[in-house]
């Protein structure tokens, strides 16, 4: 009993330096969030967040090492023999992303494909020089193959060229599958072409099938699937590209003196080219590669605002209609073509409104409807009349003035 009496209850210090220290520590703890107070408890969720961030940004990190602001659009080239369906696929891809129809495809077209991805799509015709240029700069190649014919010489040639500069990502697209009447034969053919494609590119390379056309376009779901692949695809930085600056000119203006051209039509021209800088930084006195032209040293260079900026990186998942930008200065979006100091509206010739051309109808519907108006508005107003009560004389424009 005696021993228990000696046990004193511990009394906290009410004053003095120790008490003050403890008090300030307690106050500080109250200001902290639960995560700051006990970081270990939140370790797992933080790790998840970090991994997600890393997964989303992986592509842009690799490409944007030279350009920390925003990577330029990814270059997608559509390559294939003549009449295989390149232009048709081009138009379908643009329509899928930008919800707009291109009147005629000319020059590269830049579209916003997602929050972190923009695409510059180019069509490559069957010319060997064009193929070499495209193989150098393309990040992704859509290799079109006519299934009813099989692989053509040009396709193999292109694949050989690609090997020189480092292989871009290649996806095969089989068209003209509707030309097979027999389903079994079509499937056999698909299988044969797939294995041939795998031997040429690599085992398991992605091959898409476009099974037929509806109203002059490929089927929407098939194009949509293809586009989804393009939107999420990861790209490797290739050797040639990370060591050279290059500009894919998406717009060109001839600024040479018209008087000089009149006197000497074959004199040298002065042109200005517009495009995103890709590859490495541009330095002074460095030669810049321009696909289709060659290597040039720069005489003058200006920074321009981004004509097709990426959408704001908010948390919303899908793009709004406003964010689905398209930049196609040479192609005539919605029937409009830009020049240096003018804007042209494509009406499809002076007699286009008399011909019922179903294919071109949606592109210039608005302008065509304006052309169909025969009387001006004031004339229509004058001839119109309103009857206020049944049995009374109608009120016309002249009555109002009186
Ligand atoms: N039946 C069928 N016709 C197709 C298919 N793909 C394209 N075509 C048609 O083939 C024709 C040529 O298509 P384009 O898109 O102009 O081909 P292209 O490769 O751009 O042709 P060039 O620019 O001349 O090399 C068009 O009339 C298309 O309608 C397909 O899968 N099936």
From TrEMBL:
Cellular location(s): Nucleus, Nucleolus
Q: Give me the Gene Ontology terms describing cellular component.
A: 90S preribosome; nucleoplasm; small-subunit processome
One example of the protein's molecular function in GO is:
GTPase activity
Q: Where is the composition biased (Basic residues)?
A: 8-26
Pinpoint the Bms1-type G domain residues: 71-236
Task: Give the species.
Answer: Mytilus edulis (Blue mussel)
Checking InterPro entries in the record gives: AARP2CN, Bms1/Tsr1, Bms1_N, G_Bms1/Tsr1_dom, P-loop_NTPase
UniProtKB keywords? ATP-binding, GTP-binding, Hydrolase, Nucleotide-binding, Nucleus, Phosphoprotein, Ribosome biogenesis
Q: Name one GO biological process term.
A: maturation of SSU-rRNA from tricistronic rRNA transcript (SSU-rRNA, 5.8S rRNA, LSU-rRNA)
Q: What is this protein called?
A: BMS1
- The record's region (Disordered) falls at 1-38
Q: What single Pfam family name could you report for this chain, choosing any that match?
A: Tsr1_G-like
Similarity comment: family membership: Belongs to the TRAFAC class translation factor GTPase superfamily. Bms1-like GTPase family. BMS1 subfamily.
**Which superkingdom, per the lineage?**
Eukaryota
Under catalytic activity, the entry for this protein gives: GTP + H2O = GDP + phosphate + H(+)
Q: Which PROSITE patterns match?
A: G_BMS1 (PS51714)
Name the SMART domains for this protein: AARP2CN
Question: Which Gene3D superfamilies does this one have?
Answer: P-loop containing nucleotide triphosphate hydrolases
